[in-house]
Specification:
- The protein is built from eight helices and eight strands.
- It has about 210 residues and is of the alpha+beta class.
- The chain starts with a helix and ends in a 9-residue tail after the last helix.
Length: about 210
């Protein structure tokens, strides 16, 4: 039976093997049942949405030119939505796309918290994010195609709001340090971004900080 399954659907067989090893490990280490279920739910989500594949690992082995093309295909639309990046050259958008890293947050996870230093911005590929301030007031709900936290790429300020996953969320993360390296390669556009950021820093919605 295992041989037949392997020939029919090797990806599904690999997924089952992972679940068996994971389940055995959790029982051996006496992981609490509720935590076990959350871990199994997460792996189930990975299978349903990505067939169990790690996107970063899947394209890591491609030559640089192909990796850049795939990254651009996946991320171009959401990058071009960001006001800071409007008017950017194809080369700049490509460079940013290459540096975006996929991350997954489970329901109830905090992507960022108010008061923390801002070191990343996020692009939503799938799922729903709530922007929360004060004692839990939801001031915005963001979905696929939206972004948040972009002012953290340029300003050394703490977060003014928290971002919480409502459901399983596939996001792309762009780190401040990495973005600085990209800007160093495009000094003309770097000056443009700093000018835009200066104008927006006092008026940007809380959800974008």
């Amino acid at each position: 039976v295992s041989s037949i399954l392997a020939n029919i659907d090797p990806a599904k067989v690999r997924y089952r093997e992972i679940l068996e090893k994971l389940t055995a490990f959790m029982k051996y280490r006496n992981i609490p049942p509720d935590l076990q279920q959350r871990i199994l739910d997460y792996n189930s989500y990975l299978w349903e949405k990505r067939l169990g594949y790690d996107e970063t690992a899947a394209i890591a082995g491609l030559p640089p030119s192909l990796r850049a093309e795939v990254s651009l295909f996946l991320n171009r639309e959401i990058i071009e939505r960001v006001p800071l990046f409007r008017g950017a050259s194809e080369e700049f958008v490509r460079a940013v796309a290459l540096e975006m890293r996929p991350v997954i947050f489970t329901p109830g996870d905090y992507v960022m918290r108010a008061g923390e230093p801002g070191r990343e911005m996020y692009f939503i590929s799938r799922g729903t994010i709530e922007i929360v301030i004060g004692d839990g007031k939801v001031v915005a709900t963001l979905t696929a195609g939206d972004f948040f936290g972009e002012m953290a790429l340029l300003l050394n300020q703490p977060r003014t709001a928290s971002a919480r996953a409502v459901e399983y969320c596939d996001l792309y993360m762009l780190e401040k340090e990495t973005f600085s390296h990209v800007l160093a390669r495009f000094p003309e556009f770097s000056a443009h971004i700093e000018e835009v950021a200066g104008k927006r820093s006092d008026t940007a919605p809380t959800s974008q900080k």
